[in-house]
Each structure stands twice: as structure tokens, then as C-alpha cells.
Amino acid sequence: MAIPVTEYNTNVRPTWCVGCGNYAINTAIKKTLSELDIKPNQAFISFDIGCNGNGADKIKVNAFKGLHGRAIPLAIGSHLANRKMTVIADIGDGGTLHEGIEHLIHAVRSNYNITILIHNNENFALTTGQATATTQESKPMYGLPDGKPEREMYISDLVLGQRATFFARAYSGDMLQMIEIFKSAINHKGCSIVEILQYCPTYNKEANPEWFAQKIQKLAQPVQSLEEAIKTSKTEEKINTGVIYQDQSIPTFYDRLQNRKNINTELVEEVKNYDISNLLKYLD
């Protein structure tokens, strides 16, 4: 029997803008944990700074709000300390592709067994709509009234170019598909990257539900090769959503550690108290 979704609720009222995709994403995370029968004390979610980070106090799990762009290393540390926990990094496109870009690349390369949810609303919404790496070139934004001069960056190109073992794309306006994607990501043994196309009604009004309805098409199943995945993830004409690519054959980071072979305890269980009184006497 699934855990009631209400078990993950807190008494904190959401303060996102009306129509913000974070409402659906936050609910989808709760519903995913419920359907996978993961208890609140069995989940660790590291939240970034930003509109998505304001979800940290709205879900009853082991939640930690870190510095901007640092949600991924927090998740990695939690996972390596205790692999019994379901570990999720919840981070925006700004934090991921600016301060946190190296964390994303090395998480994919190392294939840590965590799930990374990237909210992509193509702007720094919490600080009034500045351009991020995913903002379309030439689009006027706060501080850039004449348009963004740089080319945009695509999350799919970056992670699939690093041979990610799991990449999916969800849309905040389709909660049922989002839940199924989240469940597949958590169940995947390896680093799961989920790009969430998120509607921002305040600073990215052009990408509204009507626009997404015309652009999105759902994949029935993942493609078979990285090359095909890179092609399928392109967004010029149509935007494919669903689990785009999955490779179960790549060992995780922990499974590659020879010094942890045949050890059944978790690192957190091996922490001990040490008598350091002899060291302290040298401080006098």
C-alpha cells in the first residue's frame, strides 16, 4: 500500500507566482515518493537557491538548502555517506549551468547513483528575470533590454555529450508523465538527469501552455543509442518528452571502489568517536 501523499506535506504555504510550474513539480515529487513507497525519512533532497529552492520547506523529507549551484555535490555527499537513502538534487537551470556546471559534468562522468531534477524556465526568476545559459539568444531580459548576446546552451547536448546513463525530459504542465519519469529516474541505478521544461508566467511568458501544447510530443520509449538520443533531444521544431535515453550497463561510482568491495555497512555507520585529548594538550 502506497504511503499517503499527505505524509510529505508541511504547514508552509507556497509563495510561487500564480501558474508557476513549481506547484506541479513539488506535488509530482511527493506523488513519486508515495507511489515508490519511500518514507519521508528515507529521502534526502538537496535544494538550490532560487524559485525551485523555495520548495525545500514545502515537502517533509530530509531537505537541505545549499549555496547557489551547489545542490549536486550536496546530493553526492549524502549518497556516498548512506546509500540506503533515496537522494535527489533539485536545482534550476541557472544554478546548474553557471556556478554548478562542473558539478553536473562530473556527476554524469562519475555516474553517482542519484537523481538530478533540473528546473529549466530559461531565466533567474527569483532575482527578477535575468538571462541564464538556456535563455534564447537575442531575447530581451532584465538587464539586457537589447537582447542576450550569447548563444544559448542545451542541457541535453551537455549531459548526453558526457555519456549520461539516463536522460529524460519532462514538462511541468503534464504531471502524470512527470511522475512516471521521476519514478524511472529514481529506479535507474546511476546518475539520472531529468530536464523539466517549466512554465514561468512572470519572466518567460512566451513559453506558455499553448506554446508547449504545439511543440511537445511524447516518446513512447527510450532510443537505443547515444547518437540517436542526441538527435532526438533537439528542440528546433518539436520537443520530445519522456525517457529519452537509458544505459544500465555502466557501473556506478560506488561499484567501482575496490576498497569498498564486500563491505556491507554504510559510511555513516562507520563513524566512530576518537579520543583526541593527547592532541589537544599541544594547544596549551
Q: What would the keywords be for this entry?
A:
8-stranded mixed β-sheet, 8 strands, 9 helices, 284 residues, alpha/beta
What does this molecule look like?
- The protein has one domain (5-283): Rossmann fold (3-Layer(aba) Sandwich), CATH 3.40.50.970.
- The radius of gyration is 20 Å and the shape is globular.
- Helices cover 27% and strands 16% of the residues.
- The mean pLDDT is 95.
- With 284 residues, it is of the alpha/beta class.
- The longest helix is centred in the N-terminal third of the chain and has 14 residues, at 22-35.
- It has nine helices and eight strands.
- The chain has an eight-stranded mixed beta sheet with strand order 2-1-3-4-6-5-8-7, with helices on both faces.
- The N and C termini lie far apart (60 Å).
Strand and helix map with partners:
Elements: H1 22-35, E1 43-47, E2 62-65, H2 71-81, E3 86-92, H3 93-97, H4 101-110, E4 115-120, H5 155-161, E5 166-171, H6 175-187, E6 192-197, H7 209-215, E7 216-218, H8 226-232, E8 239-246, H9 277-280
Parallel strand pairs: 1-2, 1-3, 3-4, 4-6, 5-6, 7-8
Antiparallel strand pairs: 5-8
Helix pairs in contact: 1-6
